[in-house]
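Checklist before submission:
- one chain only
- standard amino acids only
- sequence pasted in full

Submission:
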Amino acid sequence: MAKHVYIIDTCVLIHDPYAIFKFQDNDVYLPLACLDDLDNLKTSKESVGWSAREVFRVLEKFDLEELRSPKGAKLGPGLGNLFVYNHEAPLSKNEQPNIVKTNSDNALIVTCVALKTKFSRRKVAIVTKDMGLRMRAITWSCAAENYRSDLVDEADLNCVREFNISLHSDWEAITSCKKQSDGRLKISLLSTDLQKEFEKSYPNEFYIFHRGEDQQNIGLYKNDALDNIPYIKILKDNGSYKFSGITPLNQEQKMAMEIISDPGIQLVNLVGAAGVGKAQSLDSLLLSENGWVRMGDIKIGDKVAGSDGNFHNVTGVFPQGVRDMVRVIFSDGVEIECCKEHLWATKSENERNYTIKSTQEIMNSLTGHDGSKNHSIPMVKPVNFSEKEHFIDAYAMGILIAENQDKKLIPNLYKFSSITQRTELLQGLLDFGGKINTDGDIFYHTESNRLAEDVIELVNSLGGTANYKNNLINICLPKDIQPFKISDKLALIKTKIPTRYISDVVEIGQKECQCIMVDAEDHLYVTEGCVVTHNTMIALAVALKMIDDSMYDKIIFIKPLVPVGGQEIGFLPGSKDEKIMAWLGPAKDNLETLIQKKQNLSTKECSDVLKEMIDDGIIEVEAMTFLQGRSIQNAIIILDESQNISQRSGRMVVERCGKNSKVIMLGDLSQIENPYLDKWSCALAGAIHGSKPLGIAASMVLTKVERSRIASVASEIFNKRF
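Returned file contents:
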């Protein structure tokens, strides 16, 4: 007799159409409601439709009479029996059958309660990937479990080992090898204890070697394919790694660059939050259509101000965890908190255009050759808030605030009004309380710190700068903003260009952070003080360098069509290519950023270069929907958001990899939008787990076939019956 009874939810079958064969010698029950669900899904053109149809193809191989019989249908040698359970059947002879389709969650619970009564001495449990159903089942005293057949163990996601070096001879061998060109250190040259440590290693696994509290080196365990000699490749310092203008800012980025750039590694799996490399603290303020909002409160679909003064959609929100933070101090007194990897568009003394730099890069070149401030940032254009209905005219309100000592703040209704209304408000303030010195500088006097803050915010939102010192606000406005209506004052103005320099960067400890992606053309958004900041991708940086070195012909960037924030690709305007480019906006953003860093071009020039590369076929963007049937030769295939696809779909992408091609799977296991997956069952987790024993794969998974070595081992990597 079978040991246990398992009732299978629809989501399990959609995730794995062959799930019924994964329960060893236990009995498997399919409620009718689950078959109804599959019937409704089978016409879908997405992957769920394929899964539903595949389940029916599997069930078609069984005798239907056996499936409904008390004994069920045998699943196979060493396996239990399969039953289709009719929860609609009457419980007694006099009852009519309930043929109205039942909610499948309720049907699973009804089935479980009935089978618990029938098999009182056996374990009866619902198997579902739906946490809500598992919780609901518990309230009905029904056991409910996650589907565990393809779950990856937490330990399998660990791609780095650490080892304390106790012997001086081992440490000397490691450090001296670091100075050699190839960095190779044969395992046989190390102590017996260290050699035993490497016996536990997988190919292409990283080691962090520690010596004392403050000394460390990083090595990558390798095995020479020709003469089977194991060795450690000792990684050089961060400065030795530079790809498309990007250098690693930490050890993890260096390790990622090492395995991506290794021509012998054909499958690379990178796990990390999208947007790693840029973050602001959760309490940082961003400028929305209705005023300031906390970074921690931003959601996909919100709008924030860009450098052009218009409001742009937030297309991605990426939690970054606790990070080491700095305070960036600007020449007009504005201060911004961000991480050292946060990106800025700045212009230094040797640059004619703004280029993208990390905060760490700015810290390393804070002053120019003469000791002056070296980095200026672009000024925001006047922010285009909507026109507001005011009971008091904006100009009159400015005069009232300037002359009335009881009015020591500017109401938000006026601060966040249209450009014309805010200009008139400032004119009222300056006509009554403003002064101009002999140099043509504009000043406003106030003893109220609160009013000073509001006036500075008003000036900043109009694209200007303002400093407050000794009760005077020194104001500089762009030439198209007229600060006065009074002609006598207006005649004294001398045109000056508002400029904002980075004065200092100070470390302030750790804070919880987040980064965002916006769909502005220059990818910039406005934060506190109307400071313009940037919102990168290591894989693309290394890939571009390998294209330049003629190692590959092109880059193919792929993203699964998983709706985020309710957006579907079918609703996007334009042709297939235009739809995909819009869907893959972050890739375009990152590519333009890398081109800008590499070639020191303007934003428009970068867009033109990217368009030319796409037209020439050097860069290709594709959706997984349009990938099937292709065999991709001599290319770097970057699969983004691979946490949102099943292991079957992951296998399909890897199988597209032709000769001399490399697959890079990227993803964030905490950002799963696919309702049928979790961090333990998605393609990215499966690839990391399944590829560990293979020397052609690395993560921070072949019998020979005629396409390519990596394609031939796709089934071995994912180890599933797809």
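Reviewer check: The radius of gyration is 31 Å.
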